[in-house]
Amino acid sequence: MKAMDAAGKSSVTCVDFWANGFGMRMRIALREVGVAFEYVEEDLRVCERSELVRRMNPVHRSVPILIHRGRPVCGSLNILEYIDEVWSALGETRRLLPGDPADRADARVFPVFPAQTRFLKSKGEEKYAAKEELVEQLKRLDEVLGDKAFFSGDAFGFLDVVLIPFSSMFRGYEQHGGFDLEVECPNLMRWVKRCKERESVRAVLPDETKMYELHKEWYGIE
What is the full DSSP assignment across 5-24? Predict the structure, then answer.
């Protein structure tokens, strides 16, 4: 088994919160490359961070944190590149990032959804504007994806790992905003279904209803 120390214990630990989309990236990537890991839950609903997080990430005190042989790696994109370089580059499995430098640069340019928080928290005209912005961001993703199987092409790769965790809020978006992503973004929704056929994704993505209920709690949504 990979990622085991001399005593037979896991040399890889993931510190994360189950609903953290950035941390889901780390857990999906490790499963993709076949690396065994210990999972430590850090409840982000509690204000005070654990001693482990304070020790392993003393500056930002945030998760996710990948601990490999006692050394921490922080920041979700840093963690993905570390996983790719440490395990994929050794030839033990395929690369998550493309081999060509130009393609790697393209893969690192990814969209985010800055309108999500405003969409969930705001009211009235501001909420409507945030909803329109969020849907437009998703439509741009749909256009970029086109008829490709994955954002990385024919194979599930780096950009797919980066983006698929956020699909766990798609149903919440629909319920909160009263729109249908199957209509608005058909390519994107087909991609979500395709990604969920992978064991690495199925094992990590949380229940969508549970995710939405948590966000309603966080943002005070009735």
Answer: -TTSSBSEEEEE-TT-HHHH
